[in-house]
Amino acid sequence: MKPVSFCTLPLLLSSALLCSTAHADVTEAEAIEAQLGSALASADFAAKNCPNLAINDDKVQELLKRIKKTAADLRAGEDYDDQHKVVQQLNKQQGRAMICMVLPSAHGGYARGVIQKK
């Protein structure tokens, strides 16, 4: 398999997110759930592996409240699982330092700002 270039890394990190919200009938709550579920997988990686990054817990809690879900609910979901697999694969291919560098900008939409530089 060909190594992933630096330019495509942010796109791959959010690929699970894009695939899960592609249809037009997505409600706001569904969009938040998909985007936050994906961001939580990245945030969990960051919390364990990226000392230069912080998780904006207030933002996470605000979004969870809006969708009436818990973090555990989202961690058990498909969006989390898909993103977790992507992050693990990229960790093997590109290494932790590269992932830690791009994670703050890898998630947009409702999940923008969940992962921040310290």
For the CA atoms, what is the radius of gyration?
A: 13 Å
Q: What portion of the residues fall into strands of 2 or more residues?
A: 5-15%
Ends distance = 34 Å
Overall mean pLDDT stands at 86
The ordered string of helix (H) and strand (E) elements is HHHEHHHHE
Low-confidence stretches: 16-23
Major sheet description: 2 strands, antiparallel
Which descriptor suits the 3D outline? globular
Helix/sheet category: mainly alpha
Helices, strands, pairings?
Elements: H1 9-13, H2 15-20, H3 28-49, E1 53-55, H4 57-67, H5 71-75, H6 78-94, H7 96-106, E2 115-117
Antiparallel strand pairs: 1-2
Helix pairs in contact: 3-4, 3-6, 6-7
Report on the structure:
- The chain is mainly α and 118 residues long.
- Helices cover 65% and strands 5% of the residues.
- The chain is globular and about 35 Å long.
- A two-stranded antiparallel ribbon has the order 1-2.
- Helix 3 runs antiparallel to helix 4.
- It has 7 helices and 2 strands.
- The N and C termini lie far apart (34 Å).
- 31% of the residues are buried.
- The protein has helices at residues 9-13, 15-20, 28-49, 57-67, 71-75, 78-94, 96-106, and strands spanning 53-55, 115-117.
Short structural description:
The chain is mostly helical. It has helices at 9-13, 15-20, 28-49, 57-67, 71-75, 78-94, 96-106; strands spanning 53-55, 115-117.
Keyphrases for this structure?
single chain; 118 residues; mainly alpha; two-stranded antiparallel ribbon; 5% strand
